[in-house]
TrEMBL record:
<keyword id="KW-0133">Cell shape</keyword>
<dbReference type="GO" id="GO:0009252">
    <property type="term" value="P:peptidoglycan biosynthetic process"/>
</dbReference>
<dbReference type="GO" id="GO:0008764">
    <property type="term" value="F:UDP-N-acetylmuramoylalanine-D-glutamate ligase activity"/>
</dbReference>
<feature type="binding site">
    <location>
        <begin position="119"/>
        <end position="125"/>
    </location>
    <ligand>
        <name>ATP</name>
    </ligand>
</feature>
<keyword id="KW-0961">Cell wall biogenesis/degradation</keyword>
<keyword id="KW-0547">Nucleotide-binding</keyword>
<feature type="domain" description="Mur ligase central">
    <location>
        <begin position="117"/>
        <end position="289"/>
    </location>
</feature>
<keyword id="KW-0067">ATP-binding</keyword>
<dbReference type="InterPro" id="IPR004101">
    <property type="entry name" value="Mur_ligase_C"/>
</dbReference>
<keyword id="KW-0132">Cell division</keyword>
<dbReference type="InterPro" id="IPR013221">
    <property type="entry name" value="Mur_ligase_cen"/>
</dbReference>
<keyword id="KW-0131">Cell cycle</keyword>
<keyword id="KW-0436">Ligase</keyword>
<dbReference type="GO" id="GO:0051301">
    <property type="term" value="P:cell division"/>
</dbReference>
<dbReference type="GO" id="GO:0071555">
    <property type="term" value="P:cell wall organization"/>
</dbReference>
<dbReference type="GO" id="GO:0008360">
    <property type="term" value="P:regulation of cell shape"/>
</dbReference>
<protein>
    <recommendedName>
        <fullName>UDP-N-acetylmuramoylalanine--D-glutamate ligase</fullName>
        <ecNumber>6.3.2.9</ecNumber>
    </recommendedName>
</protein>
Length: 449
């Protein structure tokens, strides 16, 4: 680890004892910082608070008293999810007390180079792809951030022989000042989290902090098809590596039905297992980052011809008698299901349904043009069936649950069909989580004879 002396003797307030706050507190304590920890949850049953108190750290639970700011603080480390409108943080801003997230700590102490990935959609898939593509390269990839282990915790254990691959949200990046990855990736920018950031402009600025401190020795990989992202990248001093699914560019592009990186052919598109135009953008970003970080084309090709997708996110399950099964249980709204359906040209048997939140499915109707049959389940089964009828789908069946829907869908299918679980609804009417629903689908597919 480097720069640990920076924290010695500093007065630091940790706000929020979720996974990242707990990890940051233990880490900063080990560096010799003078810590105060604050968590809104009650003290009773708060195991993290108890563990920190056993280390001799002062912990205040149950509220965010403003008196915590009277500790001559050098800075605050906050949980990314706590908004800056929180009264304690608002007052800290008025007093000019710096507020960071644990990403700032990770960047300061890491002995390993860092690849940082952000964007509104596709972060998890891209991060996972990069981690897989870098296996068997000169450096050992370690996936961290929003997926994997807490970033600062991994950074503390890293060596120069590792490479950290971190998925980072706008919440995390907003709380950085010195953070400087060797490679940054900016996938896309859509309206999201406006309740937190206030506007799309502020949201974009938070994401763009991923490249703010980069220089000419670093790389920024970005989506040249996204005007908002391209505009935000103009001020980056890093080497620009664009990617585009629509035109040839100086980074990653498509030519003659193959994917190229700077005039080098990487793979034929037909060989890529992961479906969908949106995933093609994720793949391009991952290819650029991995090649720049030392991955071999052989390993990249191996990943792209075998990688089934992140679990429950348009995940390829298996093929049975010419039918390909995909698990997209994470599709808990209409927009996600529309994106999933757009990924396939083959006829689709769609499995959909779940919690009824009172909305109609009229917006889904135009996306059903490639659906030859539907199997609906859950509270929204009838609503989805009505949407299917309006789309002109003649074969619509109802099942009690996902387990029953799978063999029913198979009975309606033929070779070359896609059987897709993409519910367009939350899972809570029948399942505790979308993960449980997806696992039921996978298990049912494996049981088919």
């Amino acid at each position: 680890m480097k720069n640990t002396e920076f924290f010695k003797g500093k007065n630091i307030l940790i706000v929020g004892l979720a996974k990242s706050g707990f990890a940051a507190a233990k880490l900063l304590h080990s560096f010799g910082a003078h810590l105060f920890v604050n968590d809104k949850s009650p003290r009773e049953g708060n195991m993290e608070a108890e563990k920190l108190e056993q280390l001799g750290i002062e912990v205040v639970c149950g509220a965010h008293p403003l008196t915590l700011l009277d500790k001559n603080l050098d800075f605050i480390v906050k949980n990314p999810g706590i908004p800056y409108q929180n009264p304690l943080l608002s007052e800290a801003i008025k007093r000019n007390i710096p507020i960071y997230t644990e990403v700032e700590i990770a960047g300061m102490i890491s002995d390993a180079p860092i690849i940082a990935i952000t964007g509104s959609n596709g972060k998890t898939t891209t991060t996972t792809l990069i981690g897989e593509m870098l296996k068997n390269s000169e450096k050992t990839p370690i996936v961290a951030g929003n997926i994997g282990t807490v970033f600062s915790e991994v950074a503390a254990e890293s060596t120069p022989d590792d490479i950290l691959v971190a998925e980072l949200s706008s919440f995390q990046l907003m709380g950085t000042e010195r953070f400087k990855p060797e490679i940054s990736v900016f996938l896309n920018l859509f309206e999201a989290h406006l309740d937190y950031h206030g506007s799309i402009d502020e949201y974009g600025k938070a994401k763009a902090k991923i490249t703010e401190n980069q220089d000419s020795a670093d790389y920024v990989i970005y989506n040249a098809d996204d005007e908002n992202v391209t505009a935000l990248m103009k001020d980056s001093r890093a080497k620009h590596i664009p990617f585009s699914v629509t035109r040839k560019c100086e980074g990653v592009y498509i030519q003659e039905d193959a994917l190229y990186f700077q005039e080098q052919k990487v793979i034929e598109l037909k060989e890529i297992v992961l479906p969908g135009k949106h995933n093609l953008s994720n793949i391009m970003a991952a290819v650029a980052a991995s090649l720049l970080a030392g991955a071999t084309k052989e390993q990249i090709r191996h990943v792209l011809t075998t990688f089934p997708g992140v679990k429950h996110r348009l995940q390829y399950v298996e093929e049975k008698n010419g039918r390909r099964f995909y698990n997209d249980s994470k599709a808990t709204n209409i927009l996600a299901t529309k994106a999933a359906l757009s990924a396939f040209q083959n006829p689709v048997i769609l499995l959909a349904g779940g919690l009824d939140r009172g909305n109609s499915f009229d917006d889904l109707i135009p996306a059903l043009k490639n659906v030859k049959a539907m199997v609906t389940f859950g509270q929204t089964a009838e609503k989805l069936a009505d949407a299917g009828k309006q789309a002109g789908i003649e074969t619509i069946k109802r099942a009690d649950n996902v387990e029953e829907a799978v063999p029913l869908a198979y009975s309606l299918s033929h070779a070359e069909d896609v059987i897709l679980l993409s519910p367009a609804c939350a899972s809570w009417d029948q399942y505790k989580t979308f993960e449980q629903r997806g696992d039921m689908f996978i298990n049912s597919v494996h049981k088919l004879k």
